[in-house]
Amino acid sequence: MTAVPEHEIETGVQRHARHQGMEAGGVLDQVERGFAGNPAGMQYFYDLFRDVYCNGVKPHPDKQTIGTMCVQIPDEIIHAAGGVPVRMCNGFYTDEELGSEFMPAKSCSLVKASLGMLKSQTNPYSAGLKTIVNPTTCDQKKKAAGMMREMGYQVYDMELPPVKESEEGREYWRRSVRKFTQHIGKLTGKKVTRRGLKQTIQQVGRAQLAYHRLNELRKHTPIPILGKDIFMVTNAYFFDDLARWTEATEALCEEIEARVVQGYNAAGRRSPRIVFTGSPPVFPNLKLPLMIEQADGVIVADETCSSNRLLNDMVSVDEWFMYDMVDAVADRYLKSCTCPIFTMNNDRIRRLVELYRTFNADGIIYQAFAGCSVYEMEQRSVAKAMEKEEIPMLYIETDYSPSQSGQLSTRVEAFIESLKARRRQS
Ligand code: SF4
Ligand code: SF4
User: Fold this and answer.
1) pLDDT digits (tens, 9 = 90+) for 66-80
2) Do residues 89 and 70 lie in contact, with contact meaning Cβ atoms separated by under 8 Å?
3) What does the pLDDT look like over 300-325, one tens digit per residue?
4) Hey, where are the domains in the chain?
5) Is 329 in the pocket of ligand 2 (CB under 6 A)?
6) How far is the CA of 6 from the centre of ligand 1 (A)?
7) Pocket of ligand 2, candidates 72, 111, 309: which has the most ligand atoms within 8 Å of its Cβ, to mutate?
8) Ligand 2 atom 8 nearest Cα
9) Which of 363, 347, 370 minimizes the C-alpha distance to 412?
């Protein structure tokens, strides 16, 4: 028997990266080739995901990346300190499987996958990462901090209050953001200055305006762009260069505006319009959004932290002084958060009803990752409120595993058919 040369032996890390590439490639094929009429402007985003996840291209080879574990971490402040924020929330089943080896079986898929990714070091934008900012949001994220430290990462705990309506909660969070603003400069070696912060608030603001412009176009009937593409655009924001992402989104807006003028329909003639809510879809776990649109539904709006909540609310500054700006950044992140980690979350119900009405939707689909107790528990109050408003809602508990797909798609198809029947009767 001839021995395999050493350079040809695949290491565990290489195998993991290859499996990741195959998983990403499979989903990209579905997103790109499984639907007709993709906007030309989406090619930038499809190529970006392919480059990063299938070809191992590092998006920020010469910059200092700072990992963020949740949408609550203020990007503006990291940019102002010369860092590049990259979101560590991860959607790979390959990484979830790795995370399952050292995390409790009942943990949420997103946390298992994020820790699996950090352990494997195969993600091109997290390889070489040293610092992670972890907010004290859900229990699983809180406890993940210890595991990340054991893996050798430097973890900064950013304290978030459990109540967001009270003055005490607001002040607690403002203090936390002020402390972070001072600390981040020590990590990156660049102090956050008044000029620097003003500039990054404006740069992130321009990205948010581009997102708003795109999102507003989804109010149109017929719908000019599918929801799966919107998730690709917003998920790219997790790690893309801020200026490049903004330009690509602005170019996409121009194309979609032209589609609106032409009366272009990206969906079917009777596709029910869906609002998506709950545990966040993160690439490549677009299982449920793709299932909805393959079953002739169309996602016209969402209330998730991997998409709408990431970019919807802008920082509102009265005075461009350092402390005013830092407090304005803090307020923007706390007020707009509708994650069920807070004790009271009536804002989420208000937001869902508003999205349903303003985007002329037919129903809501609520995703909860198995093991995410907060989204699972909040399902009851949301379902009750939607029933009162006579808004049809489908609740789906799922994870990253491809095994339940058949059963899930039957439920999704039945719900979509019921929405079509309801519309016919009205
Ligand atoms: S689900 Fe909540 S805690 Fe988890 S990343 Fe999103 S906002 Fe943060
Ligand atoms: S889905 Fe639930 S458990 Fe998972 S990170 Fe978000 S809040 Fe935490």
Assistant:
1) 999 999 999 999 999
2) yes
3) 999 999 999 999 999 999 899 999 99
4) 12-425
5) no
6) 43
7) 111
8) 138
9) 363
pLDDT higher than 80, residue 336 = yes
* Chain centre to alpha carbon of residue 203: 20
Please tell me the residue having the least CA distance from ligand 1 atom 2: 339
Q: Are 272 and 420 in contact (CB under 8 A)?
A: yes
Q: How far apart are the first and last CA of the chain?
A: 74
Q: Give the ligand 1 atom nearest the CA of 337.
A: 7
Closest CA to 372 of 336, 405, 339, 334: 339
Name which of 196, 205, 198 is nearest 82 in CA terms: 196
Q: pLDDT by residue (tens digit) across 181-231? A: 999 999 899 999 999 999 999 999 999 999 999 999 999 999 999 999 999
Compute, in angstroms, the gap from residue 71 CA to the centroid of ligand 1.
6
137 lines ligand 1 (CB under 6 A): yes
> What token pair was written down for 244?
């490049």
337 lines ligand 2 (CB under 6 A): no
Q: Based on C-alpha coordinates, what's the Rg of the chain? A: 21
Q: What is the pTM of this model?
A: 0.96
Distance from CA of residue 273 to its chain's centroid?
21
